[in-house]
Amino acid sequence: MTGWVLKLDRPFLAANPESDAGATTFLRVLFQEVYGVDVSVCTDRVETYHEGIEEVSERCGTDEMGYLRTSFQDMDDRSEYRVAILTYGLPDLEMQWSYYLIKSGYAYRFCHGHLRVFFGTEISQYQLATIWKQVFHFEPNFQRE
Fold it and tell me: Alpha-carbon distance 126 to 115, whole Å?
């Protein structure tokens, strides 16, 4: 598979700047429309605390196909938290996505960190780009690693 990195010209994604709903919407639509898998239910939630950092991990989808979502938050400074997404079981696509939720007043704003995608086919690249534009309302700019 070929590795690509998403480059953004702007730091915040437009779909829903108040939370990571845009990211979860994108993943839900991608899995449902392309692979016929419902990832709206997340299970196997595990919460751990180590040296003031809360880590929450959960699996969304099925045992065979879906994504792992892990969030990290400093319990002393709740101004931001980091989220890492890792897909599994997709036949021709792998995504590694990290982003931040930064506190702005009483709400959190979504800030894109890094998205690395491995495409197995040109069709998988086209499908991801189409759904990205549908959810976020702009064309993704993928560049080879």
Answer: 16
Residue-wise pLDDT tens digits, 3-60: 777 766 555 554 444 456 678 889 999 999 999 999 998 988 888 888 888 888 999 9
Tell me the C-alpha distance between 2 and 117, whole Å. 8
What's the CA angle centered on 89, arms 93 and 58, to 5 degrees?
110
- The answer to whether 66 and 37 are in contact (CB under 8 A) is yes
- Residue 58's nearest CA partner among 38, 71, 43 is 43
The Cα–Cα gap between 27 and 38 comes to: 10
Cβ-count burial of 61 within 10 angstroms (0-12 exposed, 13-18 middle, 19+ buried)? Answer: buried
CB 103 within 8 A of CB 78: yes
